[in-house]
Amino acid sequence: MPKKKKYYVVWEGHQPGIYENWPAAQAEIKDFPNAKYKSYPSLEKATVAFRNGWKKELKNKGRKMPLSNAPYIPHSLSVDAASSGNPGTVEYQGVWTHNKEQIFHAGPFEQGTNNLGEFLALVHALALLDKQGLHDVPIYSDSRTAMSWVRNKKVKTTLQRTARNKEIFDLVDRALAWIKTHPIKNRILKWETKKWGEIPADFGRK
């Protein structure tokens, strides 16, 4: 019995649209943080779904988004942050993915958040690899929030600036200035925790 044809809707990806085969759709979501997509049994249903938008189509469906099929890349750098409290004391680090050798570490910083630490870790990694000319080395992060902040070059935090967290916010300002004046040459990839376990840069405090 021939396999039924499916149509793939990509709402959020490199090039949103409707695709007639999985390889074509997969290419549009690969390495795209928090991609939104779903398959449909007919072009008519896919067209309606694309017009409806992912918020309506995926809302309350009780369906988890499929895991990415992107391969694990050992020759890469992994970053992570740890926060004791929210807000609380924050630190972050970057390690080589294949052997967990620490490449950089910063902190502790007072009265910060884990998201700010994850963001700073990503930009620190980008700046370091850019300085060393290692533009072919991808960076793994398990924080979709931090990845979106880097992608949009904007930090959306509700944390208020105070004298106690001045140090971490000064770093955030410097990081924003850097990504706004430097092209991002390294790929930033989502670490698939469910497939690969904790990210190598994890502080092990969960």
UniProtKB/TrEMBL annotation:
Q: What's its EC?
A: 3.1.26.4
Q: Which domain of life is it from?
A: Bacteria
Q: Which reaction does it catalyse?
A: Endonucleolytic cleavage to 5'-phosphomonoester
Q: What keywords would UniProt list here?
A: Cytoplasm, Endonuclease, Hydrolase, Magnesium, Manganese, Metal-binding, Nuclease
User: What is this protein's name?
Assistant: Ribonuclease H
- The UniProt record lists the RNase H type-1 domain at 71-206
Q: Which GO terms describe its molecular function?
A: metal ion binding; nucleic acid binding; RNA-DNA hybrid ribonuclease activity
